[in-house]
Amino acid sequence: MSGQNGILVKVKDVEKTFRRGSEEIHVLSGLNLEVAEGEFLALMGPSGSGKTTLLNLIGGLDRPTSGSLEVSGERIDQMSGRQLAEWRARHVGFVFQFYNLLPVLTAERNVELPLLLTHLTKAQRRRHVHTALEVVGLSHRARHYPHTLSGGEQQRVGIARAIVTDPTMILADEPTGDLDRKSGDEILSLLQALNREHGKTIIMVTHDPHASARATRTVHLDKGQLSMEAPA
Amino acid sequence: MKLLFLVWSNLKRRKLRTSLTLLSIFVAFLLFGLLCTIENAFTAGVTMAGADRLIVRHKVSLLVSLPMTYGPRMERIPGVVSATHSTWFNGIYQNEPKNFFPSIPVEPEPFLEMYPEYVLPADQKQAWLQTRTGAVIGRQLAERFGWKIGDRVPLTSPIWPRKEEGAWEFDIVGIYDAGKKSTDTSGFFFRYDYFDEARAYGQGEVGWYYVQVENPERADEVARAIDAEFANSPYETKTEPEGAFAQGFIQQVGNIGTILIAILSAVFFTILLVAGNTMAQAVRERTGELGVLKAVGFSDGLVLALVLAESCLLAALGGLTGLGAAWLVTVRGSPVPTMLPVFYLPNEDLLLGVGLVVVLGVVTGIVPAIQAMRLPVAVALRRNA
Fold it and tell me: What is the mean pLDDT of chain B?
């Protein structure tokens, strides 16, 4: 699954510029980063440092202005929109700060969403959903709608949705940002278990040093560039 | 199909808004069905008109009679197969103006030959030929007054009094059925010889002629020849195809088609705005969710299809139930058989309605669907945050 030398993600000379009116904003400037397969990487930095932009680029949600992005040996910056959507479905599981569950669907239907793009039968999809909910410890809440779940439970449903297709990597954007300390710890433990026991590569954006302490490596971004790197 | 639950769940998101929109669409299509039925009722004569039949009337007005001697002269004109006549009797049952229906004296044999859409059993036709006071009535009229074969029916006519005092007496000898769906079965036909002999005045005169032509493509030419035959006589004629004659009759009420199109256009324009607004709001308020769908791998095309499916489902639920309700109303028959004897929703209008449902679904959904398709996933997720 990985590229050369166990490197899963290779970000090379990536620049990202946004335009606001006549003003050009350089969010990422010549950034280089490599993430190994099986790594749990924390991306830290102040607001506006480009953490989420970098995560979006690695997850194929956005395109770099220049530079190259390689995941599992594939140049995702050169893919068409349709190819990128297919690639995301197969390789990436997203966990969002505000869970981003569809309020009109039950927990199990939310988890099932990425599987609707596969050729699995209904029974097979149901089995996968059940397994994912068991991994996050929420199989007993499968038929509940998001508004009847606590924040921590909603985030666990979000994680179940992220892992249900058994993706190559999990990208988490401030996964504990909207949770109290106890629920946040539970989510971090879950992510850590996914990394350690299931070998999932995880890239997590966070402000919280307590959260980054759970990662195997932490990189800091400032003004669109890597400022320092620290192993856990 | 496996994505249908997603479409359905989104429609259920705002139950009140969806219900009100559905109700508006339902009412619009119910109205469409009923107005089409009414238009069809008004134009049934045009629909029923035979392409090979002409109507010959007095040039001045339908109210001015023509001589009976014109019939044989018309039959001698090249291209004419046969000619027969009718007269407006304006019969009323029990002296009650509401008990009015089309009543017309005719010559039974040539009339039935020219109008095969009036289906009359052979024995009843025979009985008509043998009974001078015999009358043949349509199924709908028979049901309206509970008349059956053998009944004696008295009618009065404000136009044609009898020589002797009293009402006209008719014996029901036959009940005809419709050969076509558009055939009017509210008619009352009786024998011209009985009528001509017993009326107080106007002997030897008829209201108008029906002329059957050999070749419908030469109908105009034959019509000109008939009018030329009687030009410069005291009874000049105006000949026109039966459809045009019926159309002229309807236009005395007004241009029904244009009126109905104007009403329906206003209704559909409003519905377009209502349903379009619902869809636009529905998509705008879930920008973040669309971003999530794209993030987990839904392609732009699939997101477009989902939004379009939602608007089409909304239009289909409201529109098809509205059309169904209109059909159910009309299938029970005319609520005003005196005014609108032919009362049904034609299949072509039903199909047109289904087409409009699809158009409504696509038109109201296409703009929000394209917006959803073009929405950059990172932007959508950022808006949600």
Answer: 89
